[in-house]
């Protein structure tokens, strides 16, 4: 059933609403009838169909017996010929089935173009010549670029490789940043450990020097004290020896 048939059915069902509205002139709202509900649903369906973009799907039978895991080459080829798929493929293959506006081409293949490139036809032609595409495989019009499917796929593959190359560069740069950050953290930790170790060793040396100096000074003081004590004892002994005869 197409949209024209649906509109015809809607036209046939519209006369059901007028008599009912005349039979009930009072302002009280009456429940909608089945025909009114059907018409409303049909109008909604027509609006949905009008907004939609139709796509046609050709179903190909793999075999006439409807068995699984069975492929009949002759039957499939016959169906593809009858549906016009082979002719469509041939036409699309021989024609320029891929088309882009200059702006769309620039946005899609911007990675392949130089940084200073614009959406001018000259820059696009330079890119296509640089890619090694023949003059018969593409056409540049006033507002659009036309490509054959093989050349479009070649451009797409080149774009994918270039994008992957940029991704690898970004990954390498990101890994380098992470490694550098880890290295700087380890370096800072090593510097802190070295600083603490040097401070600890300096404190130990200072403490050891202080202990040695204190021991040395104590030894010197004891030596001086003993020397002075011996000198005093000797002087006392001499004085006693001199005073001894005088007592008697």
UniProtKB/TrEMBL annotation:
PROSITE patterns: IQ, MYOSIN_MOTOR
Domain Myosin motor stretches: 1-160
Pfam families noted in UniProt: IQ (PF00612), Myosin_head (PF00063)
Cellular localization per UniProt: Cytoplasm
Keywords for the protein's UniProt record, in alphabetical order: Actin-binding, ATP-binding, Cytoplasm, Motor protein, Myosin, Nucleotide-binding
Cited SMART domains: IQ (SM00015)
Gene Ontology cellular component annotations, sorted alphabetically: actin filament; cytoplasm; lamellipodium; myosin complex; ruffle
Keyword Cytoplasm annotated: yes
GO biological process: actin filament-based movement; intracellular signal transduction; lamellipodium morphogenesis
One Gene Ontology molecular-function label: microfilament motor activity
Coiled coil: none
Family to which this protein belongs: Belongs to the TRAFAC class myosin-kinesin ATPase superfamily. Myosin family.
Annotated protein name in UniProt: Myosin motor domain-containing protein
Organism: Oncorhynchus mykiss (Rainbow trout)
């Amino acid at each position: 059933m197409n949209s024209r048939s649906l509109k015809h059915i809607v036209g046939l069902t519209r006369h059901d609403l007028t008599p009912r509205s005349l039979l009930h002139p009072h302002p009280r709202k009456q429940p909608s009838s089945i025909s009114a509900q059907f018409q409303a649903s049909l109008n909604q369906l027509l609006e949905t169909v009008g907004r939609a973009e139709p796509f046609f799907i050709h179903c190909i039978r793999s075999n006439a017996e409807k068995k699984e895991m069975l492929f009949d080459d002759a039957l499939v080829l016959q169906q593809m010929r009858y549906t016009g798929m082979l002719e469509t493929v041939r036409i699309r293959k021989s024609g320029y089935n891929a088309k882009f506006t200059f702006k769309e081409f620039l946005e899609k293949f911007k990675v392949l173009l130089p940084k200073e490139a614009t959406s001018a036809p000259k820059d696009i032609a330079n890119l296509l010549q640089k890619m090694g595409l023949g003059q018969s495989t593409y056409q540049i019009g006033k507002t659009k670029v036309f490509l054959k499917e093989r050349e479009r796929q070649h451009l797409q593959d080149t774009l994918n490789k270039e994008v992957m190359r940029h991704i690898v560069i970004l990954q390498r740069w990101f890994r380098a940043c992470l490694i550098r950050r880890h290295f700087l953290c380890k370096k800072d930790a090593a510097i802190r450990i070295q600083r603490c170790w040097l401070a600890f060793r300096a404190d130990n040396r200072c403490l050891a020097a202080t202990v040695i100096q204190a021991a040395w000074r104590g030894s010197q003081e004891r030596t001086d004290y003993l020397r002075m004590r011996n000198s005093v004892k000797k002087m006392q002994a001499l004085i006693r020896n001199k005073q001894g005869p005088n007592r008697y």
